[in-house]
Amino acid sequence: MINRARLYERIYLQLSELLGKTGDIDARMATVSAVLHHKLGMVLWTGFYSLKNGELLVKTYQGPLACQVLKKNTGVCWTAVNKQKTIIVPDVHQFEGHIACDPRAKSEIVVPVRDKNGEIIGVLDIDSKVLDRFDETDAIELEKITGLLFK
Question: At 34, which helix (H) or strand (E)?
Fold first, then answer.
């Protein structure tokens, strides 16, 4: 069994080094998406949605095609924005208002992305092909990782 905390520690160190190469937020998001998607295991989709003009718009991601615009105040991503906290969904089919961009998604975690002023500018969204893939360790560590975007 993989020790999640140790895995995230290695990912954090790798991303700390990689993200220091540019200040461009799009390049940083693309790098985070790629590293997480290929290192976490059992994930279907890993990426960012950006909050612009009251809409959540797809940004950089890894995986199958994504919904380009998420219906306002619906789904896990909007719940994370509106509640201003990380949301873990063990079974997306049990989440009222879930937006099914890919029917193969079974579980999900969404982490609000905050700028240097602490304002939510979007979310990191990770979908898994298996039920109950994410836990509190994922939440804590992914919050630390999203914090690297604006360092």
Answer: helix 25-40
pLDDT in tens, 4-33: 889 999 999 999 999 999 999 999 999 999
Q: SS3 for 128?
A: strand
- Would you list the domain boundaries of the chain? 4-150
Burial class (CB in 10 A: 0-12, 13-18, 19+), 4: middle
**Cβ burial 57-94 (10 Å sphere, 16+ → b, else e):** ebbbbbbeebbeebeeeebbbbbbbeeeebbbbbebee
Write out the two tokens for 120: 């939510």
* pTM value surpassing 0.90: yes
Q: If you write DSSP's letter for every residue of 131-147 in order, what string do you get?
A: TT---HHHHHHHHHHHH
One CATH from 1.10.150.120, 3.30.450.40, 3.40.50.720, 3.40.50.300 for 4-150: 3.30.450.40
Query: What gap in Å lies between CA 14 and CA 45, rounded to an integer?
Result: 20
Q: What is the pLDDT of residues 132-142, one digit of tens each?
A: 999 999 999 99
Per-residue tokens: 8? 């995230």
